[in-house]
Amino acid sequence: MNATVRAVVRVGMSLGCRVYFIKEGFRGMVDGGDNIVEAHWASVSAIMHSGGTMIGSARCLEFKERRWRLQAARNLIQNGITSLVVIGGDGSLTGANTFKTEWPSMLEELVRSGE
Length: 115
What we know:
Blueprint: H1 2-14, E1 20-22, H2 26-31, E2 36-38, H3 66-78, H4 90-112
Antiparallel strand pairs: 1-2
Helix pairs in contact: 3-4
């Protein structure tokens, strides 16, 4: 996974994007705060041969509920994040697809509520 994280960071930066780590996956997206950290070129140096993932991974059963996905959307907006690269298996991709499908309605809801 670290090789993929490194590739995403370096390609994103080479395209002029600001890239962020969301530590602990959907859990970090819901919790926000210190779990969302801007990545830098040096952030991913020397991680290729480490096992696991340097940004961590965690199950987030709350992400199955819309109210927590709405909180995750709020955290992304507050950090200026407009796109996601989700690295994982079937559960991660299912969660990402649900989030993508609901994104327009979540934006409308946040605007209506003044957030």
